Amino acid sequence: MKANVREIPANITNILETKVFSQRNAFKAKKIAWAIARTVFLLGFSFVILYPVLNMISMAFKHRVDLYDNTVIWVPKHFTLENIRLASRMMYYPQALKNSMILALSVTIIQSFSCLLIGYGFARFDFPFKKILFALVILTIMVPPQIIISAIYLHFRFFDVFGIIKLITGKRGINLLDSFLPFVLLALTGQGIRNGLFIYIFRQFFRGMPRETEEAALVDGAGPFRTFYQIMLPGARTAIVTVALFSFVWQWNDQLFSGLFLPNMKVLALQLNSLNSIETGVDLTGIGSFDLRNDPMHMALIKTTGAFLVMLPPLVLYAFAQKLFVQSIERAGIVG
Amino acid sequence: MLKPRITLERRKSLYGYVFILPWIIGFLLFFITPVIKTIQFSFNTVVLNPTGYKLDWVGFKNYVDAFRTDANFPQKLASSLTSLATNVPVVLVFSFFAALLLKEKFRGNALAKMVFFLPVILASGFFLSVQSKYGDTSAQNINAAIEESKEMIQILDVSNIQGLLMRMGIPANIIGYIIAPVNAIFNVISTSGIQIFVFLAGLNSISPSLYEAAYIEGATGWETFWKVTFPMISPLILVNTLYSIIDNFTSINNATMEYIKSLMFSPNFRFGPASAMAWIYFLILAVILGIVGFFISKRVFYHT
């Protein structure tokens, strides 16, 4: 049976080596090509995203003289803080910043937590009417708030639960406008801005997590709340940070709810409107020694600066949260 | 010693209600009541008077009129549906691709993530009011913020591509063809910020042991993608699809939403017809979501 054994060539090691070597080379070349392609993609997308932002920053520090100078494109020749000073004075920036911060932070914390609980409830417990109730959660995402907001407004203008307050005080409900209570109540009950989406995200997230650890905890005698707190919560860090970021940004940028619930309070997203009113010529008394209305270019400059000022805090916050975000993603990856 | 015994099943279902109780309260108080009111409006003619409003029952007239006498509504509806059909798939594919890119390890990864999330901060809210001053209603689904800054660029930055082409003497309609794809990239990127991060969070929560197992079994990258990554991410594909559809439908820039809003706040306050149109619109949205959700959720893979 000697015919079956193939002869081994003398230079076997040599052949093998060149083959492995060329394979490794091909692998390396592929990797480098992909790295280049990836870099091109990322740079391209980043440019598209960053261009308007950079432009905005450049404008914020540009003196109005530079607007008429064709040689000035990005870096202003006359650096100035005048735009920022003017815009912040017209927007009552410090006061509005404080209000916006308190509002957005508290709403973020409350609604991330309430949506987390609700999402967990939908993901991990079986109870009658669960499917119908969840379909109703989807319904709350689908109905745009613009349609129903006027009715919610009336609700908080004359706030009353089942006529109890009317019984005690004899008045038609209490006025909750110009306080943060409407926002807190909406956030607590999972009805704030796009909260249905947050519930959905958490529910999907928990459904994708393995059940074993949870059942082990149950067998070891932990109640559902303890299981939630000690087992599920640490694992859900990624989803929590993601939701908290969205939640903060949407609350920060919200004009619809703020405009109705806080008619006399100054929050940043609304103060931007006061910059718009330059157009109609209101609000200029005592501010600035020149008339903005006669110079549309300068007016645009001030508006852009105002938008930049409103955007700045979430950007800065995001720069910090980003670290936590990436970290939590990586840690969650190991846990899972 | 008789103690009322509750089975584990019963108790678990009770706990479920405890977890979602806040939502039930909120839903009844802050959602269903306002919704009932708008449904009521849609069957009535709403007449404003100094002390409030008066309702005159008209039945289905508002609904019928939306299609039969209103010249704009069917047209706006059609344009909303076309934009849905073209935008949603592109946004989904792009955001998945971007999430896969961002998941890889390379230098500057954190920076890239930060940049990709920027549109979420830019996209919503306060820019819209600035933008509305310019009265640009033709551009659908264009990120208001970017639109705004483009206006600024057009006013202030003479070195932009459009200006350059214009000065080269190229006719405006040809410039339009050149600029349109660029704008499309703009729109897609700026509306997919949330989807990217939902995908990214999902990709990162896939257990590395699955990839290790696939690697040991000798799966290629392509196979690993379709057999591990794709099924594991499929629940989030469902989320993102539904979200993109809803986002597209309820966006303030959507043609139909815009039209409904303009009716509602018009001087003669046509609240009845506007509510009827809004409900027609939601019914269509619900049907689309139902169909799409049904087909995708059949293929979704869950651990449970």
Provide a descriptive summary of the structure in words.
- The complex is a heterodimer of chains A (336) and B (304).
- Chain A contains 15 helices and no strands.
- With 336 residues, chain A is mostly helical.
- In chain B, 74% of the residues lie in helices and 4% in strands.
- A two-stranded antiparallel ribbon of chain B has the order 1-2.
- In chain B, a hairpin with a 2-residue loop joins strand 1 and strand 2.
- The two termini of chain B are 39 Å apart.
- Residues 125-159 of chain B have low confidence and may be disordered.
- The chains are: A mainly alpha (336), B mainly alpha (304).
- The interface between A and B is large, with 106 and 100 residues.
List the helices and strands and how they pair.
The complex is a heterodimer of chains A (336) and B (304).
Chain A: H1 12-60, H2 64-67, H3 82-91, H4 93-124, H5 130-142, H6 145-157, H7 164-169, H8 181-188, H9 195-207, H10 212-219, H11 224-235, H12 237-253, H13 256-261, H14 268-276, H15 296-335
Chain B: H1 8-42, E1 44-49, E2 52-57, H2 61-68, H3 73-103, H4 109-123, H5 126-132, H6 144-156, H7 161-167, H8 172-191, H9 193-204, H10 208-216, H11 221-250, H12 255-264, H13 271-297
Quick description:
Chain A is mainly α. Chain A has helices at 12-60, 64-67, 82-91, 93-124, 130-142, 145-157, 164-169, 181-188, 195-207, 212-219, 224-235, 237-253, 256-261, 268-276, 296-335.
Helix content of chain B: over 70%
Computed over alpha carbons, the radius of gyration of chain A is: 29 Å
Strand-pairing-aware structural class of chain A: mainly alpha
Describe the sheet with the most strands of chain A: none
The ordered H/E elements of chain A are HHHHHHHHHHHHHHH
* Biggest contact: A-B, 106 and 100 residues
List how many beta strands of chain B DSSP finds: 2
Q: Tell the overall outline of chain B.
A: flat
Rg of chain B, please? Answer: 25 Å
Counted by DSSP, the helix tally of chain B is 13
Poorly predicted ranges of chain A: 279-286, 331-336
**How many strand units of chain A?**
0
Tell me the structural class of chain B: mainly alpha
* Structural shape of chain A: flat
What are the segments of chain B in which pLDDT stays under 50 over at least 5 consecutive residues? 125-159
Strand order of the largest sheet of chain B: 1-2
Oligomer: heterodimer
End-to-end separation of chain A: 55 Å
